[in-house]
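Obj.: predict assembly geometry.
Materials: sequence records (below).
Method: joint structure prediction, all chains together.
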Amino acid sequence: MKYAFLVAWREYVESTKAKGFWIGIFMMPLMLFLTIQVPILLEEKATPIRYFVLVDQSGTLAPAVDAALERTYQKQVVEALKHYAAKYSKPGRDWVAAQRATSALPQFDGDSAQSVDAFKSRGGKESFLEQLRPCLKPGAPAFKEPRRVFQAVPLPSGINPDADFALLVNDLKPYLRADKQLLVNGQPADLYVAILIPKDIESRIVRPKSQASAIKPQGLTTNYQIQYWSTDVTPAKAGYGLAHDVEQAVNAEVRRREYLARGLDSVVIHDVDRTYAPFASLNPKKEAGQEAVNETDVIRQWAPSGFVYLLWLAIFVIIQMLLNNTIEEKSNRIIEVLLSSVTPGELMMGKLFGIAAVGLTMVGAWMLALFGILSWKTGGASDFAGQLLVILKASNLVPLFSIYFLLGYLMYAAFILSIGSVCNSIKEAQSYMGVLTMVMMVPMLTMTFIPKDPNGPVARLLSWIPLYTPFTMMNRANADPPMFDLIGTFVLLVATTVLALWMCGKIFRIGILRTGQPPKIVEMMRWAVKKSQ
Amino acid sequence: MTISNIQDPTLDTVADVLRLRNVTKYYGEFKAVDDLSFTLPRGSICGFLGPNGAGKTTTIRMILEIIKPTSGAITVLGRPSALEVRQRIGYLPEEKGLYKKMKTWAVIAYFATLKGLTKKAAKLRAYELLERYGLKDFANKPTDALSKGMGQKVQMLASLAHDPEFVILDEPFSGLDPVNQQVMEEIIRDMASRNRTVLFSTHVMQHAERLCDRILLIAKGKMIFDGTIPKAKEVIPRRVRLETEDDVAPLRELPEVKSLSLQPSSNGSTHWELELAEHADPQAILQTCFARGIRLRSFNQSDPTLHEVFMRLVGPEAKEASFR
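Observations (raw structure tokens):
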């Protein structure tokens, strides 16, 4: 046992010195940090100001578009105010006060014309900040308004706004393609978008059941539609961004006029649109009075998937390390010296547990980083990080993760040590690893499906396949799987792991001294089941 | 467990360090080692010779209990299992390798700890050895910074770091420059002088000739010869080489001369080679030459080299093996 420990100690010390280990250690926290931070940073810093020209030859829709864009911006201001209040309010009573002030901010849902107006009529941003001031932490920075990402600019000089679209587009194209630049406040800038509204848009409006308008002329030579010109095709297709806002704004205005034209009261229609029957999602497993499904429940449902991913990643990184170390000893023929000092069994145990210790160190560092980053990023129990933290502390996700990591690693390590013992180079190991990786892909593919039906037939079937037990049971961890599944699959997993390691021991003993072509899998199986000499 | 790495071998009462009795090893149908028996006395240097594929490495692996013999018995330092006495055995395998990313001292120290030294003692010993053999500057460098020869030297040091009583060296000289071959020879002699036992395999007969008290020659898994070098040389007749313009016919009739043949010399001319009968005195040839008036340009009497012995004993088999 002493010798196995010496082997394990070397594996541990040398592996933790390797670059791969540190990449492994930092990868997870870095990814977690980046997924939280990068979108925020990009939003704040990387999005450039987008300049656009709006040419409204009809002369009737431009104000509606302007107003809509202003409302979009005001929404962002309100969101920023909420965030600011949550982040910089003093904890305790003041924090509650700040929360109350925040709740006074308009809730934007559906048509927001009224709520923005209401916000403005209550004094807007200045009034809110005034209320908030006594609740702020000392040293809180002043509120910074979000930038206006979309800014309207006049047409470049020399372009006739009343020209036919074909001419107009021809003149604008060099700007849109960034061959020419605009001058904004004396600074050169790219034109991001040109929005063209034709003169006779009124007569082009498409109405259901109206045959005449439904016949669309071909090509763009005729000015029958509102045209959104941009080299950036994403926002136009994705249903958000400027194209979406403009389309919404125009159609809202068109519909408002339609109501008027047909003698309907648009205010009534708006109210009708906002009429609803109350609806609640409830979960019978929750405590009485708290059954309402909320955001926390959603996070609880999906958090295990995150752990499955970590589990997969950890096992994959670690077994790769084990493979490299085994093949190094084999290809460098260090194995002979080792085997003159230790038995193959001691060597195998040493490697197995040395790398297990490396894996536990890595996973431990991940857990620390996870809790660390979440605690640091959270602004209280209300945001995502805070809720996740509460769930992690309350559930048994972390202990289950550790157990399934260890068992999963030991089981897969048996395969890896068998492969490593018969291969003289990583290249030779590739073909075996290809099969193993394919086997290991299954839990990745089902990772997002299982939380939707955590106790369904697919989830149960996969749970009872020992190769997938760690991943699948981890995936089901928050869905209260039946005790039978929990204990039964665990026992089966332990038994399979022991059997796999025992067979691996026999393959390892024969394979480790072999040179030349690696054997077929069938031959390895024969070694595994045959009686030792 | 306390293991004194420098156990006094004189305390051990077992005279024979190694004893093989009727050892046979099959790999499937192939008989790699065929009924091998020999013993090694303490303090001896023994050359383990044989052509490629003769079964040397297999025998060594069986001695070290890396693999088990199909039949027969092996006793190492008086024990039936080499693993029982692993702290007292050192091994340098034929194919040399080191952990590439590990520091040089750490590799030596690691192997020494596997042989029972404490971590601290192993580290001290590693630095001491590296300094003694001129590799001090590489102590803290990873082993992939070493040249092939240096790497081999480091591995040699690693296999000796625990000062073993019995050392098995598989091809210790291959890949070393002449200076380091000399160093290696000194290391081996030094061990023998301290009553350590050395078994080494080699293809270079000069090393064996210079170092060994005793040689074991195997081919196709079978023992061909086991004995001292002088005894080995008796296997082939002694020879006399002479250069002359005169007729050598009178020499043919001498009872000392078994055969006589004209051989080309390296300088373009020719010489006569005389194979002598067993226990024949070359002086008799010389006297006959004077008596019969054969004028000699040169007269050379030489012992056969171990190389010649090797070629004589296993040459045909080795050739056959390589063309099989």
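Conclusions so far: The CA atoms of residues 185 and 207 of chain B lie 8 Å apart.
To do: check interface contacts against the pulldown list.
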